[in-house]
């Protein structure tokens, strides 16, 4: 079986592919985080026909963003932010669920978030900044030495596979959005724009999302206010009341990357996207991931039928 660390892919900058042999389950050790755990803030998204995708020249044509084409969705509800550590803690505490990263025994962590003296680990050939770290999982997002107790309760849960996300959704009585729903919501009712707020990444000199500034991958200046994840409701929402539809963490969607493909699909880019290589912090951008892939910049947002 091919391991992520042996692959070279134009998508490796985003989140590494991760088909692996599953280790024996480990006992869940949920962290207690106080507060209302399941306030998804479901926002009404009007259905209708919109223009999905783009006709702009693409850095990675294999992503399949083009052509711009009409798509139709029904009315639905979408969470105002991504699923948080607080929410996932409630799920694990009630169900005893053990995530795939815990069963694998490792997950992928951005090397810049590891201590300077962290032991050498396997990396991704095409993207050596990704390190396979034993003991990294949703409760230990930067490796076994880290916890959720440092102000991360309301940050997106990460190191969750699509399989983990779907199990959470089944428990909570919600679902993952499909790609058309996700893009309809991200656009906020306006077709043709690169970002939820317009065509310029900065608005009057201000950042509107969480991406990588500086020299990738060695120096993130944090000019947008964050190095790593931002809270799920950071920055101003779009016209539909949705926060962080681009940047911060990749969001799992329902469906395959291409028809008949076994790869899952994620949307929105992450805090590791940088204009020098991975500019996937746009509303039309997408990436393919194996459904069991886990990494420190992949999470999810939930949807539900319109009431």
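-> sequence recovered:
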């Amino acid at each position: 079986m091919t391991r992520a660390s042996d692959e070279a892919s134009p998508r490796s900058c985003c989140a590494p592919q991760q088909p692996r042999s599953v280790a024996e389950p480990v006992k869940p050790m949920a962290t207690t985080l106080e507060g209302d755990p399941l306030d998804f803030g479901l926002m009404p998204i009007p259905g209708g026909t919109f223009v999905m995708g783009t006709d702009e020249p693409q850095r990675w044509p294999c992503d399949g963003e083009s052509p711009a084409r009409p798509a139709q969705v029904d009315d639905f509800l979408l969470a105002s932010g991504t699923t948080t550590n607080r929410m996932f803690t409630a799920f694990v505490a009630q169900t005893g669920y053990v995530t795939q990263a815990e069963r694998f025994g490792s997950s992928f962590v951005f090397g810049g978030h590891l201590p300077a003296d962290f032991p050498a680990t396997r990396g991704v050939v095409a993207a050596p900044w990704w390190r396979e770290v034993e003991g990294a999982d949703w409760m230990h997002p930067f490796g076994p030495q880290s916890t959720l107790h440092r102000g991360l309760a309301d940050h997106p849960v990460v190191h969750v596979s699509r399989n983990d996300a779907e199990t959470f959704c089944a428990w909570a009585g919600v679902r993952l959005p499909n790609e058309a729903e996700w893009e309809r919501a991200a656009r906020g009712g306006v077709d043709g724009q690169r970002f939820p707020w317009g065509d310029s990444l900065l608005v009057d000199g201000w950042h509107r999302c969480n991406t990588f500034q500086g020299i990738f991958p060695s120096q993130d200046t944090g000019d947008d206010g964050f190095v790593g994840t931002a809270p799920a409701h950071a920055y101003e929402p779009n016209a539909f009341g949705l926060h962080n539809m681009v940047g911060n963490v990749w969001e799992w969607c329902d469906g395959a990357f291409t028809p008949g493909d076994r790869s899952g699909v994620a949307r929105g880019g992450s805090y590791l996207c940088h204009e020098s290589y991975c500019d996937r912090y746009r509303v039309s951008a997408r990436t393919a991931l194996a459904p069991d892939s886990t990494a420190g910049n992949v999470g999810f947002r939930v949807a539900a039928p319109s009431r």
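DSSP finds four helices and 16 strands in the chain.
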